[in-house]
Structure formats: C-alpha cells, structure tokens
Specification:
The protein is α/β, with parallel strands linked by helices. The protein has 14 helices and 14 strands. A 7-stranded mixed sheet has the order 3-9-8-7-6-4-5, sandwiched between helices. The chain has a 5-stranded mixed sheet with strand order 10-11-14-13-12. It has a two-stranded antiparallel ribbon with strand order 1-2. Helix 6 links the parallel strand 6 and strand 7. Helix 5 runs parallel beside helix 6. The two termini are about 40 Å apart. Its EC number is 4.4.1.1. One of its GO terms (cellular component) is cytoplasm. Keywords: Amino-acid biosynthesis, Cysteine biosynthesis, Pyridoxal phosphate.
Length: about 400
C-alpha cells in the first residue's frame, strides 16, 4: 500500500504575521470585542434534547477558546485541521495510542527525553515497538517491516540540532503506506512547515515557541487528512488530555507575536553561535544557522530564509564540571529546563532534559556530558553574546583550577 500525501490546505491569501494575528480571532458579534473572551463554561445549553444552541456541548469535547487556538495553528502550519492537547507529551501519547497493538515505529535517535521515555517505557506496554536510528534518511528502508506504521522525526533534533530531510523520509515511508510525524517544536511554524515537505502530521510542544512566554503547558498536532481528524479527535475526547480554556486563550495570545519572536531569537542565536565558534574554550557548536553545520543545505531548503532558529548547543572544554559551572555563571541566561520563551535559558542535557537516557545511548548521538544547550530569547544580542563569553571564560578557567559545583537538577 502507498500513501498519497493529502493535498495541503489552500494557499494562504495573507502573510504569516497577518494569519498569526487574525486566524481564529473573529470579533465578538454581540460586543465588538477584538479579542475573544475566555469561555470557562464546562457545559452549553441545548434548545431541545440533542440540539445545542451552537456547536458546543461539553468542554472536554470542544471549547470556543481551544477551537480558536486550533484554527490559528492550522492556519500557521498550512493544515486543514489542528487538535490541541494538555502537553506536548500528551500529543505524542495520543498519536501513539492511535496505533494498533503490534505496530512498529521508526524514530530518529536523538529525540526529546520525554519522547524517548514514552517510546521505550510506555508504548511497549500496549504492544508498540520502536526502532531508533541515527541516520534515518540513509537507512529508513532497512528498518521498515510489514508492521511499520509510523516514522517519527525531530528536525532539528534535541539537543544536537541535527536536521532531517523531511521530503526524502516521507517519499520512502509513503511507498510502504507509512505515516510520517515531524516534531517541529524547535523551529515553530514560522520557520518550518513540515506538511509542505510531505509529512502527514506536525506536532509541537506549544509550551515552547508557539506560546512563547513560559506560562502555559500545552501541545498541538496539525494535519490535512480527514481520516486522521476523525481518529485523533475521537482519542482527544476519549482520553481527555485537553488544555484548559484559559491556557488555550493564553497560547493563542502568545502566538500572535510568534513571527516577531522567532526572527529575534534567530538573530540572537546566530550572534551567539558565531561567538562560540570563535572561542578557544569551545570544542564544537551545533547550530543550523551556521555554514559549518553539516546539514546547512537542508536548512536552506526547509527553513524560511534558511533561518537557524533560537536553539543551539555546544561542547565546552573542561568536561561536565565546566558545563555545570557555565550554567551557574551566566547572568542573563537562566539555568532551567524548557525553551522557546522570551527569556534566554541554558541547561546541561545529560543531567537534565536527557538524564533518563542511558549514557551510551546519549553519547552515540552526540549528547556528551560536556554539552550545553542554549535557548536564545529576545533580549539584546550583544548582551547575550557577552554573557556567554564571560561565563565561558570563567567556567573553563575555574574548572581547570579545580573549582566545581553541582546544580542538583534531575531530568524530567
């Protein structure tokens, strides 16, 4: 069986920024309010048995604010449909729950720690097996079996910023009737639209760039297939892992400035990336906006204007102790998990976001103990660059002189 990639939604008649501001934000017909109200009602009146006043019956099934947010994400990802969930992890779980027992999934090796945890510890409980591969475009056909139903891609990957040619993977997968899911969290819909490159589903941790203000935990999936909409919306309702009306409203508000924030974060990460690359205290820099990135050609093909996004990682001289010390010495970058907010963050993946992945598996895909991940926010680029350079200098020097410290943070 082959899969014909469903036609993308009709070409937008307006630019990204216009869609971000206006999609799903109809003026209130009774008051003229330009921003939709927050609908906290859990249930909706019916004029007769089985005949609701409007399109809503019960907020787990559908809510005005959630619907507004879903409409906006669909518009930004050039999709026909979008479904919002209580977290990015819940989005992953619902998609995996849609597979029958005995199904096989192929995934890139360097995925978010929470995704790896679900694939290895939860999916197998309902009979879904996952095969991890570091070079998915090269060897996808070798891993396909009659039971393979799904291919899972992160591009860029977390935290090594490796890129995957979405079209190449989709072409190979669709020849065998296999769906392709792309986690687009690291770039956001502004920089990359995976459905346009042949993917069947695009997912996001809305917590990150789409909301962008570090005050909402949410997830979303977008796609074009009517069959997928029926299957996933049924599970969304049946499992009930849905966001609140208030969180949906906040995320919708946050996404209105996504294009502005994504551009500024890219500008800042590019400046920081160049500074890191020039530093004698750095072993290697992973940033798809740099010409030195091994997959720079893919970035130019798949990313808006070849943008690199706001995420980067680097290996620091001095090992794990220097990596920890760096994160304690930054003055603007905050030592914290997560990413994609207006504020800049730093973390050590081996001890934090990816602590649950065995050391040998981590290092096989480049997640070494000396790796530091940065999420560049929207502060001034010069300030961020200077902050990184002063922390680098002190961390490497102090570690070499015997200073050490532990942040005591565990992985989530």
């Amino acid at each position: 069986m082959t899969i014909t990639t469903p036609p993308r939604a009709s070409s937008p008649s307006s630019g990204f920024g216009t869609r971000a501001v206006h999609a799903g934000s109809e003026h209130d017909p009774s008051t003229g309010a330009v921003i939709p109200a927050i609908s906290l009602s859990t249930t909706f009146a019916q004029t007769a048995v089985g005949q609701p006043v409007g399109e809503y019956e019960y907020s787990r099934s559908s809510n005005p604010n959630r619907k507004n947010f879903e409409d906006m994400v669909a518009a930004l990802e050039n999709a026909k449909h979008a479904l919002a969930f209580s977290s990015g992890s819940a989005t992953t779980a619902v998609i995996l729950q849609s597979l029958a027992s005995g199904s096989h999934v192929i995934s890139v090796s360097d995925v978010y720690g929470g995704t790896h945890r679900y694939f290895t510890q939860v999916a197998k409980a309902h009979g879904v097996k996952v095969t991890f591969t570091p070079e998915i475009e090269v060897d996808i056909r070798e891993h396909i079996t009659p039971a393979t139903k799904l291919v899972w891609i992160e591009t860029p990957s977390n935290p090594t910023l490796r890129l995957v040619d979405i079209r190449a993977v989709a072409t190979a997968a669709h020849e065998h009737g296999i769906m392709v899911v792309v986690d687009n969290t690291f770039l956001s819909p502004y920089i990359q639209n995976p459905l346009d490159h042949g993917a069947d589903i695009v997912v996001h941790s809305v917590t990150k760039y789409i909301n962008g203000h570090s005050d909402v935990v949410m997830g979303v999936a977008a796609f074009n297939s009517e069959e997928l909409f029926k299957r996933l919306s049924f599970l969304q309702n049946a499992i009930g892992a849905i966001p609140s009306a208030f969180d949906s409203w906040l995320a919708h508000r946050g996404a209105k400035t996504l294009h502005l924030r994504a551009r500024e974060a890219t500008t800042n990460a590019t400046a920081v990336g160049h500074a890191l690359e020039a530093s004698p205290h750095v072993i290697a820099v992973n940033y798809p906006g740099l010409d030195s990135h091994p997959h720079r050609a893919i970035a130019k093909k798949q990313h808006r204007n070849g943008m690199g996004g706001g995420m980067l990682s680097f290996r620091i001289r001095g090992g794990h102790a220097a990596a920890e010390r760096f994160c304690q010495l930054t003055r603007i970058f905050t030592l914290a998990e997560s990413l994609g907010g207006v504020e800049s963050l730093c973390e050590v993946p081996s001890s934090m976001t990816h602590a649950g992945i065995p050391k040998e598996q981590r290092e096989a895909v480049g997640v070494f103990d000396d790796l530091v991940r940065l999420s560049c926010g929207v502060e001034d680029a010069e300030d961020l660059k200077n902050d990184v350079l002063q922390a680098l200098e002190r961390a490497v020097t102090e570690t070499a002189n015997g200073a050490n410290g532990s942040n005591g943070v565990n992985g989530h």
